[in-house]
Amino acid sequence: MSLLIDVFICREDNYGYLVHDVDSGKTAAIDAPDAEAIAKALKTRGWGLDLVLITHHHIDHVEGIAPLKAQFGAEIIGPRAEAGKIDGLDRLVAAGDTVQLGETRFEILGTPGHTLGHIVYLDREGGHLFAADALFSMGVGRMFEGEPGPMWEGLRALRELPDATLLYCGHEYTLSNAKFALSIEPDNAALKIRAAEVERMRAEGRYTIPVSLGMEKATNPFLRIDQPEVQRAVGLEGAEAAEIFRAVRKAKDDF
Length: 255
Prior knowledge:
Blueprint lengths: L2 E8 L3 E8 L4 E5 L4 H11 L5 E3 L5 H4 L2 H8 L2 E5 L11 E3 L4 E4 L2 E7 L8 E5 L4 E5 L2 E2 L2 E2 L7 H12 L6 E4 L4 H11 L4 H15 L7 E2 H7 L8 H6 L7 H13 L2
Parallel strand pairs: 3-4, 4-5, 5-6, 10-13
Antiparallel strand pairs: 1-2, 2-3, 7-8, 8-9, 9-10, 11-12, 13-14
Helix pairs in contact: 4-9, 5-6
């Protein structure tokens, strides 16, 4: 099994992803933030579009559904729990389901919090996680609809994936996330190295994604709420995980 992944920017800071299964020649887009940018990337690669895998209902992830469906006849797959908020879905999926793209199998994991029905797509065999706005590099999405307990449980499940798994998130927020992470763990050596690397990459116009989950486990404060330094930073040493997560998320909101 071989998977090619094309990464490009949509809108202002959304990431666009094309996932191409080499053996079958089938291609999927992860979310539909910008139909024109996706169509341009497909043309450059010489690929068609078979599937669009939607993660959640926010407009900057679904706006391109209708034109992509009209132009390419792609099947649109998305979260069952948000079916009433997303027009144009052809197939509904939920945590525990799978989606097949040629020889590549995507597992659906539930990550409620940013939105209640947010899902992510995991190519476990290839080590690729398409997490949209559930998990960013050194950050997580704002908790618009969910509660800290379920959101943390979804993130903890992602944290349990192998370190070599590559994270593909929904936005290029890494530099601002790094600044916040350093305010929480200023003495974290791995974080200081990653933050400096990210600053160089962005200055050169380079993408900071993908990044390994191993790096995220070492640098992302939202995946490190069980670490004493993170707990001390929000004044909640030894507290329940959900309360610590809530406090770190509130600190980021106010940062």
